[in-house]
Amino acid sequence: MANRTQKDASSLKGTNPQYLIEKIIRTRIYDSIFWKEQCFGLSAELIVDKGMELRYIGGIYAGNIKPTPFLCLILKMLQLQPDKEIAIEFIRQEEYKYIRALGAMYVRLTCNSVEIYKFLEPLYNDYRKMRYMNKMGKFELLHMDEFIDHLLRDERNCDIQLPRLQKRQALEDTDQLELYQSALDEDLDKLSASDSEPEETKKERPSLVSRRRSRTRSRSRGRDRSRSRERDRDRDRKRRASPDRDRRDRDHREDRHRKDDREKRKDKASSKDDFEREVEESNALRAKLGLKPLER
């Protein structure tokens, strides 16, 4: 039968290799047109040619659960169970990114934890873009290092339940793996070295931030000085341009003071006249009554 596992294939994870993919998805793959037309009669060597034709990765999509060609080729590799060297060569080649993704998924499904970390962690330095088809049948952007990170951290990827993976720290404690060295370690060492420099060298070599701050301070001081100079110039210009106005203002103030003085004198005179008039009237009235007049 075309859907049976190869006779000389060994069991993986204690079961048939094809059983690593769930039965309902396996059934959809067997019923798909790509499986019937493109995967029939494939050998381990011919899978490379089909992998070169891949243009995106993904699991199942659409309402009737259609499998992607990437998922079909994964099942075909589990069915044929090619040599480990072929899968490793898929990973090491750098020309075809979708073949690399195919080999990474196969290694994640079939190898042990030590080999998975050993072969997949170097792919963190691959930042190429890939097309990923989601369950709605739409394409999304995915980078190779993101895909590898999902393989090492998530429980499911491309709608496949991934086998359990041991923690890296546990493998390091048992000396099965060496400490992980990232490509960013050199940059981090440079930053730590710059932070640990003595204070004298830091004072002699000012940082870019301090230089920018000094520049901004000098610029702001220059602006303040120029503004104060402009204000002084405007004040002098106004003084020179308006001597007549100052004279008019001075004359106006003097006239107002004179006017106020005259009004005060008038008020005093009028009050004196009123007082004398009242005295005369009162004396006339006292004379009629036979009383003595008032003294002024």
Automatic annotation (TrEMBL):
<dbReference type="GO" id="GO:0000398">
    <property type="term" value="P:mRNA splicing, via spliceosome"/>
</dbReference>
<comment type="function">
    <text>Required for pre-mRNA splicing.</text>
</comment>
<dbReference type="Pfam" id="PF03371">
    <property type="entry name" value="PRP38"/>
</dbReference>
<feature type="compositionally biased region" description="Basic and acidic residues">
    <location>
        <begin position="221"/>
        <end position="275"/>
    </location>
</feature>
<keyword id="KW-0507">mRNA processing</keyword>
<keyword id="KW-0747">Spliceosome</keyword>
<feature type="compositionally biased region" description="Basic residues">
    <location>
        <begin position="210"/>
        <end position="220"/>
    </location>
</feature>
<protein>
    <recommendedName>
        <fullName>Pre-mRNA-splicing factor 38</fullName>
    </recommendedName>
</protein>
<keyword id="KW-0539">Nucleus</keyword>
<keyword id="KW-0508">mRNA splicing</keyword>
<dbReference type="GO" id="GO:0005681">
    <property type="term" value="C:spliceosomal complex"/>
</dbReference>
<comment type="similarity">
    <text>Belongs to the PRP38 family.</text>
</comment>
<dbReference type="InterPro" id="IPR005037">
    <property type="entry name" value="PRP38"/>
</dbReference>
<feature type="region of interest" description="Disordered">
    <location>
        <begin position="190"/>
        <end position="296"/>
    </location>
</feature>
